[in-house]
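BUG: 3D viewer hangs when loading the predicted structure for this chain

Environment: internal workstation, default settings.
Expected: structure renders.
Actual: progress bar stalls at 90%.

Input used:
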Amino acid sequence: MHNSLQYRGFTRLGLLTTAILLGGCLSGGGGGSSSNDTPPTPAPSYNATIERTTYGVPHITADNYGGAGYGHGYAIAEDNLCVLADAFVTFRGERSQYFGPDQPASPMGTFGTPPNLEADFFFRFLIDDQQIDRFKAEQTPELLELSQGFAAGYSRYVKEIRDGQHVGRHASCRNEDWLVTISEDDVLQRLIALNLAASSANWVEEISNAQPPAIGAASLRTLDQQQVAIEPTPERFLLGRKQGIGSNTFAFGGDATESGGGLLLANPHWYLLGVDRFYQLQMTIPGKLDISGAAIIGSPMVLMGFNDNVAWAHTVSTARRFTLFQLQLVEGDPTRYLVDDKVHEMSASEITVQVKQSDGSLAPATRTLYRSSYGPMIDLSGLKLPGWNNQTAFTLRDANLENTRAFQNFLAWNHAESLTDFYNLAREYVGIPWVNTAAIGRGDKRALYSDITTVPNVPDNMLAKCLVPGLGAAVLQLAPGLPLLDGSRLACNWRTDADSAQPGAFGPGNLPSLFSTDYVANMNDSYWLSNPEQPLTGFAGIIGREDYAQSLRTRMGHTLARERLTGTDGLNGHLASSENIRDISLNSRVYSAERLKTQVLAAVCDSNAPASEQQACLVLSAWDNTGNLDSRGAHIWSAFWAKVRNLDLYATPFDANDPINTPDGLSNSSDVQNSLREAFSASVVEVVASGVALDARLGEVQFFLKPGEQIPQYGGEGSEGYFTVLRNSYMHVVDFPEDEPVRAYTLVSHAQSTDPSSPHYSDYTEAYSAKQWHRVPFTREQIEAELESSITIDE
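C-alpha cells produced before the viewer hung:
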C-alpha cells in the first residue's frame, strides 16, 4: 500500500502491529504491572466549528478526525434527528419493541419496506455483534475516530433535546422513548447495512423467514428442475426492489470541454425520504483533509464529492454482489448438508425480539435462523422455487458481507491528490460495494469510468458445470448475470485472482475501467457503452451484459452528450462547459416521445374518436416533448407510455453496431397498432377520471414528496426516456479552472432537513424546482462571504 499521504500510513498492518505491541506490554511475567493496574483510558475530547452557508450546508472544521466526525454528527442531528434516530432503532432490530410488528420499517430505502418484525430479525441476525466486531477490527484508526466522533456529536444533540433545548424542533420524536444516544457500534452497524444495499438487504423477508421443515416431515413440494417458470418480475432483483433507483453521470475529458480540462456531472436518482437520503456537507482538517460533497445519512464520511484536486460521481452498477447456492441436504436432517460428500452442519442463531402488543405491553418473539458456510439461508418459495425441504435448500453468499474495505476506500478517495492517485486507490482497495464511478482530476485531460468494485469471482467458464440444472438457467433469464450455483461441490464456490483484495472476489485486472479524453457516461446500464466509441468487452456476465439493447434513459444520455459535442443541440458552440451541462441535465427531454410520438399519434388519433381523445391528440401534437413545469401533455404521454413500454413496439430491431439509435420506428403490425389504440383510449379515460385537465401544465400535476409543502416538480421516469428523473437528489457539476480553486455547482432536490420546523426544510427544493444551481463555497474566503451562522462545540 503506498503512503503518499499521512492518512495512508495507518493501515490494517499498523493496527495489527499496535495490537501485538500492546499485547506484549500487558502480558504477565518479567515483573511488569498487571492489567488491573493500568489506568483507565480517558474519554476522548472533541472540538469542531460548524459554519452554515446558503441552504444550510454545513462546513465543519476540526483539528482531527474525531472532531470532524463530531461536527458532522451534531450538524446532521440538527437537520435530520428523527429520521436518523428512527433508523438506528431499525439497525438495532428494535422496531417491534417501539412501533409494533406490522408497520413498514421504512417509507422507502435500500432494504425495501418490510414489516417491522421481519426487519428486526434480519438486522439482529445478519449484523450481529460478531459481524460488527469483525468489521471494526479491519478499519483504520482514522475511520474509527471519525465514527466515534460522529456518535458523540449526534449524542450531544440528543442530550440537548432531552434537556429541553431547541424548543419547537423535531416535534415527531423529541419526547419519544426511542430517541437515545448512540455509540460507535451504531455507526458501524449503519455502514454495514449500507454495504449490503445491493445484496442481502434486498432479501430481508426471504432471509428472516428461512426455516427448515420439521425433521422427518414429508416434502411439501416437488419440482421438475428442467422445466421452471419463475414468476416475479426482474425488478425484484434490483437495488431497492424497483426500477428507478440509480443515477446518471457524465465525465468529459479535455478534448470535449471549453476549458480543456475535465468536467463532471453527478446526478443520482436516489431516495427522497428516509435514512438513505443524501446530506451535503464539507469537512476540513487543516493540512489533512478538505472534502465537500454528499454523505448518505449516517455515513460519517463524504461518499460522493470533490476536493481541490479530484471530483467523482456514482451510479448503481449492474454487477451482482451475491450468488445463490443450492444445498444438497443430509437425509433425515435438513440442517446438515453435503459438500464433496462431506457433512457440514449449519450454524443456528436463536434470536428474541421484544414486540409491542395492542395494550402497550411487550411480549417476546423468538426465531432460530441458520447459516451455511456460504452465508445465510434464504427462502425462495416466493419466486416459485422449491422451499426448504428435506432434499434441498438455498443459501446466499454475499461479497459485501465479507467486504470490510468499502468505507476505507471512500475515505481514502476523500484525500486523493490526483486522478491517477484516485484510480490507484480504487485498484488498491477494490472496496466500492455497488456503484460505478466517474471521475476527473485537476490538470488532467482524462475522464475516468470505473466498475472496479467488489464482485463475486464467478467467471463465465464456471457456469456450464456449476449452474443448478434447469433452475440456474431460469434465474439467469430473469436476472441476467445472477448465477444459482451447485453448493454441493467445492469446485463451484467462488474463485480468487492473484490480485484479489478479498478471497472469492475478482481482482482489478478482471474488472472494467476506461480513461477517455472525450467523455464517459453511465445511466445504469452496464460498463459496455461507457463511451460508445470505446466499448468495453470481454468481462464476466456477473459484472454486466454486452451487446444488448440499452434503456431509453441511457440512449437519451448519450444523445445529449453527442449532440453537445457536435453542436446540434441548439446551444452555442460544440464543447461541454459547466453552464451548458447544468442546463442539459435538467432540460427534461423525453426520448420516447422524440422518437415515436408522431408515429403514435398517426396510429391512435381518429376524427371519429370520443371528444376527449381528440382533445388529447391536439394537446400531444402541440406538446414540446419535455417534462418541464410549463409543458402541457407530458402527463398524458406518461400515462400512455406506462401501458405500452413493455410491448415490442419497434419496426427496426436493436443493432449492436448502432446501439444508441436502435431499436427504433413504430411497427405497423396489426397487433401493435391495436394495442396502441387500446392503451391510448385507456390512458385518456384514466387522466379524465383523475380530475386533471388534459391540457394541464405539468407543474399543476406533479409535486415533490415533501409533507406539508406543494412544490412543483419537473422531469419523469427513466423508462420514458427522461434523463431528468423524478428521483434526482443531490447533484453537482464540478470543474477545475486553471489557477483557481475547484468550482462546484450543487443542488439537493429534497433539501437538507427533514424537520418541517427547520428553515432548510424546503429552500433547496424550491431552488431545484426553479433550476437555480448553487455555486457552493469551498475556500475559507468563499465560506466567510456566504456565512449564515457559526457555532463551535466541544466536550
